[in-house]
């Protein structure tokens, strides 16, 4: 199945480079592009992309605002953030909003292509362990209020689900959680899916962020 990609970046040279790079992959098709986030909703309706490569800093509607709006849509396309800085509070906010991950603009072409494939397959393009490192490098404001809210949300999980959520926050894969908790991998996957549904989250990265906000990692 062809992966439909929308590129949103204010730099026409970067858009052209990404289009050329992705166009070389037989399973990927760039269906559109935009110079800021203002027209993204209309482009989604018209072009039905599976993945959006979204710059954060753009004139007009920035990528952060656009990401938050896009991810609130039913059946929203996945969003991968394009950024120059890997330790950035805007990147964290985009991940909290449901972006599937981020790639640096100087990432080798092959890795960007693979990132698009992974996201289209429902996999985040950064591990919770990377998210943890990002969190520790970014100044965190409003931590106390987020902790109260995070603890309240996690209270809706049962003991096993909370245990698995913490393991996800520690950066463990399903196989590692399976070995640690003596559960089968399919059982772990079922629990993770249930956690996402209960907490109304999009992906494992958001679970990791919520566990961090609740201060459950030691």
From TrEMBL:
Key words, A-Z: DNA-binding, Phosphoprotein, Transcription, Transcription regulation
InterPro entries documented for this protein: CheY-like_superfamily (IPR011006), NreC/VraR/RcsB-like_REC (IPR058245), Sig_transdc_resp-reg_C-effctor (IPR016032), Sig_transdc_resp-reg_receiver (IPR001789), Tscrpt_reg_LuxR_C (IPR000792), WalR-like (IPR039420)
SUPFAM superfamilies the UniProt entry points to: C-terminal effector domain of the bipartite response regulators (SSF46894), CheY-like (SSF52172)
Domain HTH luxR-type stretches: 150-215
Any coiled-coil regions, as ranges: none
GO biological process: phosphorelay signal transduction system; regulation of DNA-templated transcription
Designated name of the protein: LuxR family two component transcriptional regulator
Organism: Kribbella pratensis
């Amino acid at each position: 199945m062809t992966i439909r990609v929308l590129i949103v970046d204010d730099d026409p040279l970067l858009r052209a480079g990404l289009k050329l790079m992705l166009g070389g992959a037989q399973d990927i098709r760039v269906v559109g592009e935009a110079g800021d986030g203002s027209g993204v909703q209309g482009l989604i309706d018209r072009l039905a992309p599976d993945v959006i490569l979204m710059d954060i800093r753009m004139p007009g509607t920035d990528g952060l605002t656009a990401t938050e709006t896009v991810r609130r849509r039913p059946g929203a396309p996945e969003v991968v953030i394009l950024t120059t800085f890997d330790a950035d509070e805007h990147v964290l906010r985009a991940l909290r909003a449901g972006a599937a991950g981020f790639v640096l603009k100087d990432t080798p072409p092959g890795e960007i292509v693979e990132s698009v494939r992974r996201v289209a397959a429902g996999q985040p393009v950064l591990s919770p362990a990377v998210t943890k490192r990002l969190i520790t490098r970014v100044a965190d404001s409003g931590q106390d209020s987020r902790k109260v809210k995070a603890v309240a949300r996690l209270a809706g999980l049962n003991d096993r689900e909370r245990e698995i959520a913490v393991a996800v926050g520690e950066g463990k894969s399903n196989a590692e959680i399976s070995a640690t908790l003596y559960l089968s991998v399919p059982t772990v996957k079922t629990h993770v899916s249930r956690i996402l549904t209960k907490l109304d989250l999009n992906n494992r990265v958001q679970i990791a962020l919520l566990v961090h906000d609740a201060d459950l990692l030691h």
